[in-house]
Amino acid sequence: MKKISIFFLSFILFFNIIFTAHSTDNIVFLDLNRVIKESKPGASLIKKFEDIKKKNIDFFISSEKMLKDEELKIISQKKMLSNEVYKSKIVEFQNKVSKYNFEKSQKLKNFDIDKVKSYEKMMNLITPILTEIAEQNSYLMIFKKESLIIGKTELDITNDVIIVVNKKIDNVK
Predict the structure, then answer these.
(1) What is the pTM of this model?
(2) CA dihedral over 136, 142, 145, 150, signed as positive or negative
(3) Nearest 5°: CA angle at 101, between 118 and 57?
(4) Domain containing 97: what range?
(5) In whole angstroms, what is the distance from residue 54 CA to residue 50 CA?
(6) Closest-CA residue to 145 (of 157, 137, 128)
(7) What are phi and psi of 29, to 5 degrees?
(8) Which of 51, 123, 129, 158 is placed for a possible disulfide with 30 were both Cys, Cβ 3.0 to 4.6 Å?
(9) Is pLDDT at 52 greater than 90 in this prediction?
(10) How many separate domains does the chain show?
């Protein structure tokens, strides 16, 4: 019985040493944020949403300026208009403001939804690439750089992933 215990303990110790020595070479990490920022499809996705955001901001600024001008016009006409007409213009203006606020919130909400969906599509396209890279290089695990405290730079595969992503993914819609 004692021989079996010693054999079993030796076997576990031996297996643990081999696995530990083998696994450190096969665990790598990558910076997903950098992959998205520096890869062609990721950069075009970022540019697309920056352009949409800029157009939305320009639209909001011009709409708010028009509403402000209309408000000032109504206020300036207060003494010239009858009380009923003035109140009706105020109510009409308030309805315009409410409609604008609703449209603005819908536009912002749709922007956020589209952005999340596009980044999810990008990640769904990157995941098989990471699986392929892991299989080709016999990587046991690929960690996100954001999850690590410290790691050897030789274990960073970000540049390799960017190259493959640029080759395999044309664009994300």
Answers:
(1) 0.72
(2) negative
(3) 55
(4) 2-168
(5) 6
(6) 157
(7) -140, 160
(8) 158
(9) yes
(10) 1
